[in-house]
Amino acid sequence: RRERQRFVDKNGRCNVQHGNLGGESSRYLSDLFTTLVDLKWRWNLLIFLLTYTVAWLVMASMWWGIAYLRGDLHRAHDDAYSPCVANVYNFPSAFLFFIETEATIGYGHRYITERCPEGIVLFLFQSLLGSIVDAFLIGCMFIKMSQPKKRAETLMFSHAAVVSQRDGKLCLMFRVGNLRNSHMVSAQIRCKLIKSRQTPEGEFLPLDQCELDVGFGTGADQLFLVSPLTICHEINSKSPLFCLSQRSLRSEQFEIVVILEGIVETTGMTCQARTSYTEDEVLWGHRFLPVMSLEDGFFHVDYSQFHATFEVPTPPYSVKE
After folding, report:
1. What is the distance between the alpha carbons of residues 34 and 73, in angstroms, rounded to a whole number?
2. Residues contacting 153, CB < 8 A, separation 6+
3. Interval 109-133: pLDDT, tens
4. Alpha carbons 124 and 119: distance in angstroms, whole number
5. What does the alpha-carbon distance between residue 209 and residue 192 come to, in Å, rounded to a whole number?
6. Are the beta carbons of 88 and 72 closer than 8 angstroms?
7. Residue 1, pLDDT above cutoff 60
8. Angle at Cα 160 formed by Cα 157 and Cα 164, nearest 5°?
9. What does the alpha-carbon distance between residue 111 and residue 82 come to, in Å, rounded to a whole number?
10. pTM of full prediction above 0.90
11. Site annotated as Role in the control of polyamine-mediated channel gating and in the blocking by intracellular magnesium: where (predicted)?
12. For labelling alongside 264, which of 137, 204, 312, 315 has CA 20 to 30 A away?
């Protein structure tokens, strides 16, 4: 096996990093919600905790500041005096009052009096700010938890692709499977051939993308994925693999990216699973072992044979030859 840099890993992760963005990095802040959703979980939790901690301390300090400027801290135990917030003696009591107000706990021991207009204004500001922060952060966490990325891990692709004849035609084939009993609604599959090439004008394209037809015209790309399926690309005169032979496969350098999309039946969210096959993972003259068998009243899928292949007689020549 020749180790080389992949454009897409086997697990679907794209090996692309964006650098030297310059002033364009400000676009991340303009779409702050999506930026937070795209962050890793550890950074999301850190931002979540820091935002609430800082907001609580700042708002509690504002309540304490009002009590300090009005002199409530020194006269809080005077029954004849009407403070802004009853029973606020120090910063901890001001912090507890903020928490009771923010969480709508309302123990009844601390409350705003009607002779404190600045406290009423601060209460309204706290209610609005708290609602905005809650909606933003909780919405971000909910969207991140409900992302169907983990559902893509239960969609399987064969470790290797094979080239052999089917119905008298040379075909590139690979296998896909769904490990869950829940279905993928409107499942669709696409394939891209990524290969460097040079145009007649002399322009070099390092990662040129060509479409591999897996049944777009016939509807074969629309999958009913209740059991493992073998996806077939017919190599003909319109195929980018028209000149591929068993001999040239050893010297070629390309990557086939497979993209499987569908709607998760249980959540209704769109899920995408990806993988890729390099030239070393394309087996010439092989076919996949059957995995389906009929049992007593149902069809049984043996996933232990999902990746297994066996050799079959296949001409070593390209379709062009």
Report:
1. 44
2. 273
3. 888 888 888 888 998 999 899 899 8
4. 9
5. 6
6. yes
7. no
8. 115
9. 11
10. no
11. 134
12. 137
Burial class of residue 174 (count of CB atoms within 10 Å of its CB; 0-12, 13-18, 19+): buried
Q: 150-311 sits in which CATH class?
A: mainly beta
C-alpha gyration radius of the chain = 31
Mean pLDDT value of segment 135-156 = 84
Beta bridge partners of 177: 156
What are the sequence ranges of the domains in the chain? 24-146, 150-311
Residue 107 pLDDT exceeds 80? no
Indicate the angle between helix axes 117-145 and 91-102, nearest 10 degrees.
Answer: 60
3-state secondary structure of 287: strand
Give Cα separations from 257 to 8, 118, 161, 207, 299 (angstroms): 7, 62, 11, 12, 30
According to DSSP, residue 144 is labeled H
Pick from 314, 171, 184, 153: nearest CA to 247: 314
Tens digit of each residue's pLDDT (9 = 90 or more) over 44-90: 899 999 999 999 999 999 999 988 888 888 776 677 777 888 888 88
